[in-house]
Each structure stands twice: as C-alpha cells, then as structure tokens.
Amino acid sequence: MISRGTSRTVHAKAPAKINVFLKVGARLDDGYHDVAIAYQAVSLYEEVRVVEADDFSVTVSGSVELSRVPTDGANIAIKAARLLAAKTGYRGGAAIEISKHVPVTGGMGGGSADAAATLLACDALWGTELPREDMLDLARKLGADVPFAFTGGTAIGTGRGDDLSPALAQGTFQWVLALADFGLSTPEVYRELDLHRERHAQDIYPVDPRPSVDTDVLQALRAGDPVMLAAAMHNDLQAPALHLQPSLTEVIELGEQNGALAGIVSGSGPTVAFLAADLDAALELQVALSAARLNVVRATGPVHGARIVSD
Ligand code: ATP
C-alpha cells in the first residue's frame, strides 16, 4: 500500500477543446463509430482542487449553468479519482472541488477536462506517481475526449477519438465561442446522424468506416493560417445538431455576417466556435454577438493540457 500524504490542497486545471474537424465513420456492429478528429485545446479552463479525505466527494461551483452536473459517484471527477486509487492501490479518498467554466453538455469536453485535471491532481496529492502512459490508459477508460484534455495542444484523434497523435501547428488561433443556454446530448446527436444517413444517400455514397482528417486541415494548422483553416473546418455532427436545434443556424449566420471567417458547431454542440482572422476581428465579433444578446467567450488556441497550478 502507498502511504497517505500530508493534508494539503493540490490545484490542477485542464482546457476545453474545439473540434476543428470531425468526421464520423459508418456505424459499427457494436453501435459505436470510428471518428477522425482534429482537436485544439483552447484557453477556457476547468479548475480542480483536491484535499485528502477518507472517502470520495465532489462539490461544484463556477460560471456556467450547473444543474446538469451530478454531485455523486456519477460525476466523472469521482470516477477518475476512484480509478486512479484502484490502479495504484491507494486506500484513502479525496474531497474534490470543481470550478467549472466550460459549458455543460456544450460539446467542449468540460467533463473530460474535469477528469483529466482530477487524475493529475490526485496523483500529485497521493504521491502515487503513475507513469504518463498509464495515466493516459486511465484517461481512455474514462471517456474518448479525456486523453486529449490530458495532453492538450493540437492533435489528431482516430479510433474512438482517443488514439492521439500530436499535429504540427504554428501560431495562435483566435476563437469566439457562442455558448447556448441549453445542452445537446452527444448520444442523441449521433442517433440523429445515423437516422439521417439511413434515410438518405447511404447506398449511393457509402460512408467510410475508417475516416481520416483532410490534408487541408493539417496544412492549415501547420501553416498557422486562419483563412486556410476556416475553409477546411468540417463537422459531420453539425447537420444533426442543427436539425435538433435549428436556432443554431441563425447563430452561425450572425457570426459570419459580423466578420467571423467561419463558424462551426463544436463536437456534438450546441457551442458554436467562430474562427477570427486576428485579435481585433475577434474583439469586434465578441462585441457584435454580445450586442445580439448571445453569451460569448473569447479564447485562443492551442494551449497546454492538464497541469498542476501552484497557488
Ligand atoms: P463532449 O464534448 O466530450 O461530448 P460535452 O462537453 O458535450 O462533452 P460534458 O459537459 O463534458 O459534455 O458532459 C456532460 C454529461 O456528463 C452530462 O450528462 C453530465 O450529467 C455528465 N457529467 C458527469 N460528470 C460531469 C462533470 N464533472 N461536469 C459536467 N458534466 C458531467
């Protein structure tokens, strides 16, 4: 057994993600889909503080709507802490405090960021020192987006999205995020996509079961060129998300009319991520969308993955 450390607080943070490219393969026999994703971590962070305790508990506060966040063992932060304890043989627990800034069920991987930050914070608190590869294995068990919240930067994800390889990226991209006051359930958006594909064209244009990221996206990231990236961005989940929430179409149009190079539904939505040409364009867009009473946040990417913060 590993001995318990002293009673202190460890603080970690992990970023939200934008899917600048997301292609969904044909539905596999097990009901899942292989995907090809280009992820970018952006400067919107979840903060997690952990303190040694006999048991596992979680409290949640923050700047976003919190009613859909469970505060029992269903919270992914508790699952992460328990998984690390089971893996390392640590016998104690942790009191976990989450400060949430990423919209819940927003398609930006907020829960995944909580899980990644909790893994890192508990490992430091308990002194379990799990090797990075083992941490990434635990991350994968917790959810397809958790490994990316751990590594951050810009990366390509294949398989379920968790088979990650870093992508070469230059410079900083300026994003303006339009947050919705409702959530979209990821499984529901995938169901809508499957239904759409069953109804249309599947036989004429069969869907590749093993999709890949378009080379234009890789080139745009490598060049650090927002105009190129705006032209190459794509999300197969956008059409089903817009079908479930038609009001998002107007949001995208409004952003594009106000100077965004392009707007894209992030992941399964409903957050819309607008790419701006530069900081001035991002600031102008932020003002215009706020004036239209949208809840907007500005962010830059790429940023680092989960990190310990020294208070
Ligand atoms: P993704 O983009 O990775 O599909 P998301 O950003 O759309 O995810 P999250 O906010 O990460 O969605 O997760 C939402 C779901 O997970 C909700 O059903 C919520 O009840 C559950 N959940 C469990 N733990 C958490 C947590 N710590 N924060 C937010 N949601 C959580």
UniProtKB/TrEMBL annotation:
The lineage of its organism: Bacteria, Bacillati, Actinomycetota, Actinomycetes, Micrococcales. It comes from the Bacteria. Transmembrane segments: none annotated. It is an enzyme of class 2 (transferase). The active site is at K17, D145. SUPFAM superfamilies: GHMP Kinase, C-terminal domain, Ribosomal protein S5 domain 2-like. Keywords: ATP-binding, Isoprene biosynthesis, Kinase, Nucleotide-binding, Transferase. Its EC number is 2.7.1.148. This is 4-diphosphocytidyl-2-C-methyl-D-erythritol kinase. Pathway: Isoprenoid biosynthesis; isopentenyl diphosphate biosynthesis via DXP pathway; isopentenyl diphosphate from 1-deoxy-D-xylulose 5-phosphate: step 3/6. GO terms for molecular function: 4-(cytidine 5'-diphospho)-2-C-methyl-D-erythritol kinase activity. It catalyses: 4-CDP-2-C-methyl-D-erythritol + ATP = 4-CDP-2-C-methyl-D-erythritol 2-phosphate + ADP + H(+). Pfam families: GHMP_kinases_C, GHMP_kinases_N.
